[in-house]
Batch of 3 targets.
Target 1
Amino acid sequence: VLRIRGAAQGDHKSEQSHIANYWSCFSYTATPAGRWNDILSGIFSTADERDLRKVARFYAILNVALADAGLAAWDSKYHYEFWRPIQAIRQAGADGNPLTEPDEEWISLLESPPHPEYVSGHSAFSGAGAAALAALFGSDTVHFVSHNPDYPDQDRHYTSLWACAEECGMSRIYGGIHFSFSNREGLKLGRRVAEYVVENVFSSNPAAS
């Protein structure tokens, strides 16, 4: 019998549960796109901020990549209209697979959003954000701190943009509202969108000021 378990039904004080809540970014928050703008703001040095042309360019590239990743992700969601884990688990008796059985009492840690599952929007935004910033700064190896106003004393530290994107994507699996393949493909989608934006929308060297 196949089941989906983990942070959604485990200890809510676990690291996985904390990551799920830390990156939840529901509609009343800055949302994932806003969080990547916050990350860029935190990475900029004082010297960078004096160069308004560079600052404006970086924000423009990041946000075009984020916007296009959002469009691509939601196009995928409503093309495939795939069910969420809570639907798959509760209705497993109707999926045509004899190896699964329903668990009608299963609940996810996070509330499932009211739109289709595939691909993960968090993963698409994060793949785009990380890839765009890596291109802009000329390296994925960037040391930075992520701040969440809902967790003011629990900043998260990273040495890689992509590691942050992967954690954000995994947060949706820990929260019980996405499947692993939706995270994986969402990250890939976001990265490809950002690479296209950097290479085609903004023609000059993205690392140049």
Target 2
Amino acid sequence: MHDENDTGQGEVTRLLISWRDGDSRAAEALFTLLYHELRALARRQIWRPAGESTLNTTALVHEAYLKLVDGSRVNVRDRGHFFALAARVMRQILVDHARSKAAAKRGGNVPPAPLDENLGGTSPVAEEVVGVDEALKKLEALDPRLGKLVELRFYAGLSVEECAEILETSPRTVKRDWQKARAFLYHELGRQGGP
């Protein structure tokens, strides 16, 4: 996903170090430099059929940026760690958005609608996002490394090799763990009646 030469690895590293040291301008420059890659990351995270109204890619990237910068001195080690952190923030934004959508459909701050309009229940996409998040939380509780791997592979779109580097393990172990994590999530989502 992330070609080291795409945006100048040296510049990304310099900006990450400056940001970690408290330079807020470095965060803005990093955001500008990696904007297209962050949009690609956001596109992968937004699951929606045509016509489903939810956060769009741009809104998700900008909201993630605000949350990342709000963390002030974030201790980001490298490019892969940055994208893993961005993926985690985007995941949480989408889950919060899906939960608020589900709450609104159940009547939270919305005037009552005729009964037949409520028969559809909550959005299937919102239910999927929340269901995947709940299954991932169970996985993280059982095995934090597997949970981290799902974030890196599924949400951040990192390669096996990039995950191995971040998790400080071998690509072979990552492949084996990825199979375990997918099997667990498939089982959990099946129990929930999900995808």
Target 3
Amino acid sequence: MEIKQFYDKNLAHASYAILSENEIALIDPARNPKQYYDFARENNAKIVAVIETHPHADFVSSHLEVSKSTGAKIYVSKLLNPHYDFIPFDEGDFLKLGKITLNAINTPGHSPDSISILIKDESGKDYALATGDTLFVGDVGRPDLRESAGSIQKKKEELAKMMYKTINEKLLKMSDNVLVYPAHGAGSLCGKTSSADTFTTIGRERNSNYALKQMTENEFVNVLLKDQPFIPKYFGYDVEMNRKGAENFEESISKVKKIDSYDDIENQYPVVDARSKTQFAEGHFPGSFNILNNTKFETWLGAIVSPFEKFYLVSDTNESLNDLIGRTAAIGYESNIAGALVHSDNGILVKSGEMNFEKFRKNPSSYTIVDIRLNSESDGRKIFKDSFPIPLNELREKVNDLPGDKPVVVHCQVGTRSAIGRSILEKKFGTQVFDLGEHILEFT
């Protein structure tokens, strides 16, 4: 038996290929299935099963594409109620894979339809548990993503209580040496996890995971619901897309229209410019959003642009543009791209204003200061006394709440997201918007 983990650091997503006797079962595969086909070919094996632990909110799975391409059966909980052919996989159900067995365990909490996969080795011994978004390294899945999405919708308090039962009646009854393979690692918005590790053991979590400590149900609910991260706009959309099954990855991204210049842009759609903030400041299409090409591109694209909103995508090279199109497809947004282009200096471009940092240091009260830190970062505490706290994920909708009588300075926690905030505010305030950037560290 081999368990191969595939890790996408951009979405902090882990998927798995389980190999035994030339048969492979995939668990929670990413949108682009090429890596799984390569693994199967390298091992002279056949993908015979695809298992979804739940309908994911933060990425689009390739389960339907893999099934159509390989003939593999899709296994999900019947509670998921998908729109594709599947084999129900719930408590008591099992799948023989070569010389090993995969057993379904219903583990509701993150979602009502969550399952975990108990992997038994050739001797029938419990070896590993693929936990999806139920159990992470140092955390458990958040319970507040299914209040208005999915076949079954439940309040976060009810799901938190389900998670409490899952932990105490199922997870904590397993042996300490059982390996735990979660669907996410540090940086995922599906929980509060901050560990750099991408797998663990039941024993380690029993001893160190705050959510597995002994406490009452009410205590657990309060602890779990506290300080959960924000919910991007695309999460509910992806739940439904995964229940339906996504279009073939390569076929879908091939439909993205490439355009030659900014002259081809229709002004009713926003422009997402993924170049560096320095390049953006030197010249960009008016009203563009500067969502940087870094490991959080998908997250902020799906937090600022709505699921059914058309947009243009700009990058600095054709190679990076193609990469961004693929990453856009990872959250199911590729069909939203009205056109994709490589930046050039031709067309109507504007520059961002240049900030005088010394002037700001001496008299910050002469500026309207916008604090775009997330609620979980600021905890209600201001860095500048008279600043306007508006989390970045809410800024586009609340920009009109800001006064326009002073130049505007925007800051985040450490300077990595303030460029996005500046670009959003520029649409209203023009060149009188300034990015404090990493200079924020001088004030904290």
